[in-house]
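Q&A FORM
Asked by: J.P.
Topic: structure of Slit homolog 3 protein-like

PROVIDED:
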Amino acid sequence: MVSGVVWRFGLALILVHVAALTMIASPPSCPPECICLSQTQVLCNSGGLREIPVKLLPATVEHLSLTRNHFPVIRSDAFSGLRALKKLSLDGNNISIIKPFAFRGLPRLKEISIQQTTLATVAQFSFAGLQNISAIYLSHNRIKKVEGYAFAGTTNLKLLVLSNNPIVKIESNAFSGLSIVERLTFPSGVRLLEPDCFNGLDTVGYLKLAYMDLPFVGNGTFRGLTNVGVLSIQESDLGVIRPGAFEGLTFINNLNFLNNKIDSIQEMMFGPEQRIRNVKFQGNHILDIPKIDSIYFAVNKLTVIANHFPCDCHIHALLEGPLTNDSVYEFTARNFCISPLEYNGRPMNELDFDSIGRCQEEVTRSNLESRDLPSNTSKNNYSVLIVTLTITTLAWTRIQLGLV
Ligand SMILES: *[C@@H]1O[C@H](CO)[C@@H](O)[C@H](O)[C@H]1NC(C)=O
Ligand SMILES: *[C@@H]1O[C@H](CO)[C@@H](O)[C@H](O)[C@H]1NC(C)=O
Ligand SMILES: *[C@@H]1O[C@H](CO)[C@@H](O)[C@H](O)[C@H]1NC(C)=O
Ligand SMILES: *[C@@H]1O[C@H](CO)[C@@H](O)[C@H](O)[C@H]1NC(C)=O
Ligand SMILES: *[C@@H]1O[C@H](CO)[C@@H](O)[C@H](O)[C@H]1NC(C)=O
Ligand SMILES: *[C@@H]1O[C@H](CO)[C@@H](O)[C@H](O)[C@H]1NC(C)=O
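REPLIED BY: S.T.
REPLY: Here is the structure written out as tokens.
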């Protein structure tokens, strides 16, 4: 009895094999517009296609290239059934919209390239559900905005390339769901970072934000961004850094501010709970010296070099503040003045600080009308009063910050 069952099972197996062999022997399916190099590699380039020929493609296809056709719309589940697909190129198409879950049902897809297209928006859930994707190339498109949750669920993405796009705005939660990304680079010209725009972005090797042109960095911009090897904000106009800009940014190994222009820093606070290890502040032009109690760095290492500050009456606050890390000597040797004009570009230590009067508001904090005392108020009987008053204020500030 048992042996009979085994025998019949064996026969069934043989029949399956024979069937498989005849299938291979019969002409494989291949859309007429395409070249099927093999049952795993299909090229449909410049084929004049208006529809994705999913039904005609071999179900075994692993590499599929559909460049330079006419696909204005990539609809939801557009490739469903191609479960073996690993690499997909849609370059050079006039794609104007990718519908939500367009690439659903492609569990093995590793790499997708949509470049040189007319795509203007990376819409919500466009790339959602690609659990196994490791690289998405989206450069040289006309992408103006990335909507929230565009990449939801693409948990294995390592590389996302968005360079050479006219992105002006990054919306809240745009990268939510991305984790373990090795490298994320943005195009130049970003003009608005919405609050929480990096929220849900977890474990990024290198996140570079460069060539931005921001009027401000607002409250909550970096909230929810966590576990970043290097976060580098560089070569940008950051405008005004508003209170709360770095609130909720946590576990950053290296946070760099390199070669930016900053109109003013209303607040820049890094608390111990944020676990920021190293902060490098280098080559920036800061047009307004921040108030002494508006900056705070509870970090392992703070490097402040080659920056330019106005050497006006606020310079005293700067030298007494946390940016110098108690080494005024080093700080003034390695940072530069923007103003007064004759000191522009010269190291701070060439300046005689005693000759610069203190600002009125440092004396009487409530008096905000007269912001700048003429920098010419050198040694007069007034400065004695200023010095004593500021020392008192300083002591008070330090107590507030828990520095004493
Ligand atoms: C895409 O190209 C096809 C063929 O040239 C054209 O009919 C279609 O209108 C184009 N779609 C868009 C959105 O440009
Ligand atoms: C992801 O890809 C690997 C091979 O690269 C494969 O073993 C695994 O099954 C894939 N995951 C899914 C969900 O198919
Ligand atoms: C930032 O906004 C949150 C609410 O979204 C608020 O709780 C917090 O106090 C704000 N922080 C600052 C510094 O304004
Ligand atoms: C400040 O300088 C001291 C040595 O001069 C250094 O050990 C310390 O780490 C520095 N603090 C910061 C926050 O960089
Ligand atoms: C400082 O003020 C005096 C007159 O009080 C003037 O002669 C001198 O030019 C001023 N210096 C600067 C650098 O403005
Ligand atoms: C210094 O004090 C004297 C007398 O108290 C006063 O007349 C004079 O105007 C003061 N000078 C300045 C520059 O404030």
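FOLLOW-UP: Residues 376 surround 2-acetamido-2-deoxy-beta-D-glucopyranose (ligand 5) (CB under 6 Å).
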